[in-house]
Write a structure and sequence with these properties.
The chain is an alpha+beta fold. It has four helices and ten strands; from the N terminus they run H-E-E-E-E-E-E-H-E-E-E-E-H-H.
Length: 244
């Protein structure tokens, strides 16, 4: 009897381990696919994610290499780059109707604000975020159906910086520290929030604060660009006058 029980026990353990691995890889690919599918629909720019991992044993996860591109007409490759972000999920909620995310920590995001006399890339993306809302004012998933319900207890964005550049001042930039941003109790109601709604809220908060803290640097670089343009115009005018 003991000889029979041992192989059965080993077999069950192996099946549990395989099931765990299958769920692990499924969730990892689902996170990556969700970000790269929903991100462009919400922000209307290219969104790429290098990798995502989530442990169903500890409930901890990490995303690496998140890049949010720029709208057409802007020179810099990306508006937002996040090297890594960690998250903690309530294990028991993973297969429930609403997944409970205890915390999301975004570390050292790098944001590029490319400005001109006609606006900035970040303002354009914020406008896209607002226009991506569905008929009821809420973002939807790629197939037009509500996404998986989420509850996110806390989002912390820390250690970030904003690199400000102004069209017409090639190579000249100003770095501005991004203050810590905290968002709490997202989707705590029975309806929760979708992945797209979460992306909307986090991106909007990050871009709003970036524009706010960079206002002085944008104004300063704008004045410099205006001076450069004025000198260039004056020089051209001198050439025409000499040619008469």
């Amino acid at each position: 009897m003991k000889k029979l029980i041992l192989p059965i026990g080993i077999g069950i353990a192996a099946l549990v381990a395989l099931a765990g691995l299958a769920v692990h890889f499924f969730l990892d690919s689902a996170i990556k696919k969700g970000v790269e599918t929903l991100g462009p629909k919400v922000a209307q720019v290219e969104v790429k994610l290098d990798s995502a991992s989530l442990s169903i044993l500890s409930g901890s996860g990490k995303i690496r290499g998140l890049m949010v591109g720029n709208p057409e007409g802007f020179r810099t490759r990306s508006a937002v780059h996040i090297g890594s972000a960690s998250l903690a999920v309530q294990i028991g909620s993973i297969f429930s109707p609403k997944v409970v995310v205890r915390s999301v920590h975004v570390q050292q995001p790098e944001i590029t604000l490319e400005a001109s006399f006609h606006g900035s890339n970040l303002s354009k993306i914020l406008k896209n975020l607002k226009s991506s809302s569905g008929a009821e004012g809420k973002p939807v998933t790629g197939d037009g159906k509500p996404g998986k319900k989420l509850e996110v207890d806390e989002v912390v964005i820390a250690g970030g910086k904003v690199r400000v550049s102004f069209v017409g001042l090639a190579g000249k930039t100003a770095d501005v520290p991004l203050p810590e941003i905290r968002l709490k109790d997202l989707g705590t109601g029975p309806e929760g929030i979708t992945t797209a709604e979460l992306a909307d809220k986090v991106l909007s908060a990050m871009l709003d604060k970036s524009i706010e803290v960079s206002a002085g640097a944008v104004a300063d670089l704008g004045r410099q660009a205006a001076e450069v343009a004025a000198k260039a115009t004056k020089g051209i005018g001198g050439v025409f006058r000499r040619g008469k």
